């Protein structure tokens, strides 16, 4: 790649990053301006939150089961009987990393693609231009409800997957490792800290913002008809997933200073 191409790619990257921040600023600004469309917000919360329950809860239930089985076997291999501490090991892993990250990735695939495709279709069919002619701000009408819904429902789903994942671990601990439920729960209560839970919750807030911001931005910048909608959908999912994984590292590093 020539130096000219490198400069062009770098310039394009920073322009896009700047576009995201401008879009975020506009979305936040219109969030606090009337009129407030509560009906649309509830519809989006239902779509993003309630309709995502099956895929998130089933995935994290089996993730908790796999975690308990693998960690329990490894602990017993190192020291016989040490798998009695499986409850805290599984719970801390789920609370801090697996539940917020996997929930975010699942929502990026399911919800992010839907948002980008829906808004992108409206863009190429000139429905967004029609909103402007009706004196309705497209960001307020389309982006704000989805932004707020992701901001609210991503942490809510993370809390539910925390519980479901721990239950999955308890199931395997009882069935395969012969650890009673009371020992499993007492080990969790003995070693778990409030910050373990709050770390995942704080991460999920950022992940929700990232999913909504990237997906809406890609939808609003769709060009090229049906093919363009497909490209925007793919970009929304890929970029949301990448940003979630990248930001997870930096959030993990920064949140350690709160402990």
Helix content: over 70%
Main sheet overview: none
Rg: 21 Å
- The helix count comes to 9
Structural class estimated from helices and strands: mainly alpha
Rough outline: elongated
**How many domains, in number, for the residues?**
1
Mean pLDDT: 91
What portion of residues belong to β-strands? under 5%
First and last CA, distance: 45 Å
Q: Spell out the helices and strands N to C.
A: HHHHHHHHH
What descriptive keywords fit this protein?
single chain; 259 residues; mainly alpha; 9 helices; 0% strand
What can you see in these coordinates?
The protein is mostly helical and 259 residues long. The chain has one domain (38-258). 85% of the residues lie in helices and 0% in strands. The protein is built from nine helices and no strands. Helix 4 (86-124) packs antiparallel against helix 6 (138-175). The longest helix is centred in the middle third of the chain and has 39 residues, at 86-124. It is elongated. The relative contact order is 0.16.
In terms of topology, how is this protein built?
Blueprint: H1 3-31, H2 38-48, H3 53-78, H4 86-124, H5 127-133, H6 138-175, H7 181-191, H8 194-220, H9 225-255
Helix pairs in contact: 1-6, 2-6, 3-4, 3-6, 4-6, 4-7, 4-8, 4-9, 6-8, 8-9
